[in-house]
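Duplicate of #3305? Posting structure anyway:
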């Protein structure tokens, strides 16, 4: 029984050796957001996804970008807009008339760290495509299944409902009343 506990303690010590330098590296860019950075790292270690909600200017986007830079992994940022399509995330197939065949163009979801920025602005079909890839860790393009890189973590950001921004304001009422 003690050997099992000792193995767990050793694994925890190895993890600690990785975590402290990571916090220090991110801390060079992000100051005063310790809770936010801790939760991002927990999501990363759990191979899960994190939703960051807060008013504009709290360094949500910069925190995720700094995490990716500190880990030296592939990073993509998806700036969600109301006119996005699922193909903007997962990719598409493009017809080549010379060869008569299709070429697969992979989307930004094929990165290790994918920032879904302002996810609440995206249409339902786009959110569904993103959530499906996050859950299954794969996408299907033209009948062919592609596995996503490992790790594949997709932190998302959104502004609180009262801080929706100009895009939502334009959709709901005239610009003059925003």
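Output from current build:
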């Amino acid at each position: 029984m003690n050997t099992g506990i000792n193995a767990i303690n050793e694994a925890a010590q190895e993890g600690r050796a990785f975590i402290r330098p990571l916090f220090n590296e991110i801390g060079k860019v992000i100051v005063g957001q310790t809770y936010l950075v801790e939760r991002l790292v927990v999501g990363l270690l759990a191979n899960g996804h994190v939703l960051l909600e807060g008013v504009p200017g709290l360094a949500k986007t910069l925190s995720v970008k700094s995490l990716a830079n500190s880990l030296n992994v592939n990073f993509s940022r998806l700036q969600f807009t109301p006119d996005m399509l699922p193909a903007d995330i997962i990719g598409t197939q493009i017809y080549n008339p010379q060869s008569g065949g299709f070429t697969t163009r992979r989307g930004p979801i094929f990165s290790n760290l994918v920032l879904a920025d302002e996810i609440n602005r995206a249409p339902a079909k786009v959110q569904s495509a993103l959530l499906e890839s996050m859950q299954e860790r794969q996408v299907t393009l033209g009948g062919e299944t592609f596995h996503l890189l490992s790790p594949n973590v997709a932190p998302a950001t959104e502004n609180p409902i009262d801080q929706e921004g100009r895009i939502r304001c334009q959709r709901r009422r005239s610009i003059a009343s925003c």
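Confirmed duplicate; merging threads. The domain at 2-177 is CATH 3.40.50.300 (Rossmann fold). The beta strands are 51-53, 75-79, 91-96, 101-106, 113-117, 138-141, 144-147, 156-158.
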